User: What shape does this take?
Amino acid sequence: MQALVIVGHGSHLNPGSSTPTFSHADTIRETGVFDEVREAFWKEEPSFREVLRTLESDEVYVVPLFISEGYFTEQVIPRELRLENWDVEQWDSGDGVSASYTTSRAADVEKTIHYCGPVGTHDSMSDVIMQRAETITGDPEIGEGVGLAIVGHGTDRNANSAKAIKYHATRIREMDRFDEVQSLFMDEEPEVDDVTEFFSTPDIVVVPLFIADGFHTQEDIPEDMGLTEDFREGYEIPAEVEGHRIWYSGAVGTEHLMAEVLLERAAEAGAEIGDASERVRTGTAEVAGD
Assistant: This one.
């Protein structure tokens, strides 16, 4: 038997924080490729510490629904899962975006744990970002004459926080789909407040590389970009800002295609997923068409 555990941050203050985790778990559960699919959280129940005890499967694939490699993926989650002999060097990621997986045992359960890198650094996230741009504009061919801004939190306390954003900006830029691609941040330079200064294109699609919509994506970023002076009054999409039309998508983690990234992470660690990835992508295309 094989199980998939999707681990997210969760929140005591924002009830919507866990919504993407449950949604993507449901999508994967419907494919039937795992005998068990569980969600686990740091700030909600079920917890990281207890989730393995709820499983019957001997082979467990744990995928963090986090954007970056860092404190939670390298310290908190392995500790709470009680992974034996865990060492971040096992991930072989010296650049902060290359973690794949490592196989271990959990100290208090007789199970093999395949601990995967976060979804946010997987190459397929570039596809999710572009899908997000298509979804918000309603244009499956979006790109020509359009700029793309990928927004992250950024922080001076953890250099890895910005690496995933820059990584995907570079990958998408090299695809030559959009006229301009920029990585912007909330708490470091270049800042999202000045989004219009970094683009010459009349249309700018802004995609926040966050897992869930919350305080930052629903309040801070719209106000910082000038979409509205008060988020409680709402704003139009697209919005006219300093001579540009801004298409603001909200958190990338809510995109249906995220389920495929979770599946691919598990498959790279050895999970047998058959054609589940293709079925999820097909279902995503149907949702977008609707």
